[in-house]
Amino acid sequence: xxxxxDPQGVEVGYVMEWADVTASWQNAAVIQAxxxxxxxxxxxxxxTLVSANAPFFAxxxxxxxxxxxxxxxxxxxxxxxxxxxxxxxxxxxxxxVQGETYVGILRLARGSDDPAIIDGSLGCVKDHEGRPxxxxxxxxxxxRSEAEIAAARxxxxxxxxxxxxVVEALRQGLRRLNAGDLTAxxxxxxxxxxxxxxxxxx
Length: 202
Description:
Layout: E1 2-5, E2 11-15, H1 22-37, E3 39-43, E4 49-52, H2 54-60, H3 64-67, H4 72-75, E5 76-77, H5 86-97, E6 102-108, E7 116-126, E8 132-141, H6 143-178, H7 194-201
Antiparallel strand pairs: 1-2, 3-4, 3-8, 5-6, 6-7, 7-8
């Protein structure tokens, strides 16, 4: 709101202007939600870390000063938990800068610990003329859930291995009984609750 004055400085009226800020408020709310709930990091077009939010640094277990200007090739790790090669990082950067968005699992180095795992995307931010200006990493920290999945997978494999061992031992024991050897025994202990089955057979 502003006053209108005539050439002599006398107030003769007022002007009021309105601006619809709904969109900007919504955008601010979206940005706030991302900052609070998602991992966010920005890199320049060379792949150097420019900025990141608090959840990113908390997940990595490092400070902004320690990671300042750190290249993507030193942050990304491959499935074997080794630092990604420069070629791998370059391929990702090149495809993203060219307009492709990388979507999927990303593993990020965090010192001597196992890598942090993000389910998210790495995309290119462009200016109003369509020129790339930044690379944006957005995602969700799935380190714990991925570890639980890996543990469950390992447990399932171990259970299948135990079952195979039990079935094979019983098969051999029954074969000896079938051949008339009533003294057949299964000597090797079974794992877990399968041990009762071995004792019952014997």
